[in-house]
Amino acid sequence: MQILVIGSGGREHALAWKSSLDESVTRVFVAPGNAGTALEQKITNIPIDTNDFAEVENFCRKENIGLVIIGPEQPLVDGMSDYLHDKGIKTFGPSQAAAQLEGSKTFSKDFFIKYGIPTAAYAAFKSYDESLDYLNTINYPTVVKADGLAAGKGVIICNNKGEAISALDSIFKDQAFGDAGSSVVIEEFLEGEEASFIAVVSKDKIIPLATSQDHKAVGEGDIGLNTGGMGAYSPAPIVDERIHEKIINEVMEPTMQGLISEGSPYLGFLYAGLMIKDGELKVLEFNCRFGDPETQPIMLRLKSSLVELCLAAINNEMDIVNVEWTEQHSCGVVIASEGYPENYATNKEVQIIDEDDQNAKLFHAGTKLVDKKILTSGGRVFCATALGSDLKQAQSKAYNLVEKVSFEGAFYRKDIGFKGIK
Ligand code: AMP
Ligand code: GLY
User: Fold this and answer.
1) Ligand lying nearest the CA atom of residue 365
2) Based on the number of CB atoms within 10 Å of its own CB, is 415 exposed (0-12), middle (13-18) or buried (19 or more)?
3) If residue 77 lies in a helix (H) or strand (E), which one and from where to where?
């Protein structure tokens, strides 16, 4: 079977790599992919325009693609899954309607209230003046969120009213997030510890994946600007058995049932970003896709087939698919370019010595292959990921792998996994 993975990040390298390990898979294509996918034996990058769904369809027909896995949120929110599905191509990823859970904060917050899913108190506004008035009525800190997709940057934590006014100015007046900022959600600031809960969902059936925790802030000790994620580890001890059950009962089940009632049952990876405090949880956000970098450590722990899991979800065979995890722990450390998550340089040549060992894997993210050289092309450049008998060992192996990579301006957090070890 041949497979197509859509996307170019570390998540897509991990999904494509994992798919390529199946004996039944003869080739994995990635559109557009990165230098990491270009260098894998059974993987080929293809330069098709993924905004042009007809071009994607034609490619699938030409190569007789048996499964399309859509990695990032944008093509899902744009309706790629519906398009390919309607053409009879087996596609793993939610419909445009279901992807609104991530595509619109207002939609998702209203959905949480309608279906009784625990979340922070909030109000949604389309106008600058009304949102400004609302700032007089709330406590601080507060959180101002642009409604639409903003690559993880549309959430601004404001310590006082002045900061909240600046946030509204940047969203409404400077249009820092373009159309994504045509409306805002202003919500209660939640304290606690965050965890990512990611599952494969097919209508009313759910297979939770191994638990994980991301590190959103750019600096050690969770200081500084929020990023797409600077590293992740799995399992996440904060999600113990009781919390796991609560997440299923209070968050995932009502979400799956709610989407069925709305006429848009879910198919794909469903990611709940949670805040946990004193054994209680609230949903911060939903993502309609796998997390990046959570995918990288989670894929390293998956012993059974990713391809069979995705096909089981598509073919309504969730009850019979085999899913196995290694008991080992996994840790992934993101290597980023100086300046990220703000401005950073690209086209820096990368040196890598003596890359992978069996229990470690250097996943590429913002890289490209030019004249056989690896050049940087994004803010997050690699995710050095490793397995170990415990988190401490996984962490130390991941950092050994980090040491093998160098490029001008490379930086990484030195404390990935600290919350799981303390
Ligand atoms: P979101 O995209 O809504 O998950 O927000 C991105 C990040 O902002 C989250 O992972 C949290 O670290 C932080 N965040 C979002 N909403 C809140 C909230 N209500 N209280 C505290 N932190 C938040
Ligand atoms: N790592 C967070 C995300 O994928 O949204």
Assistant:
1) 2
2) middle
3) helix 73-77
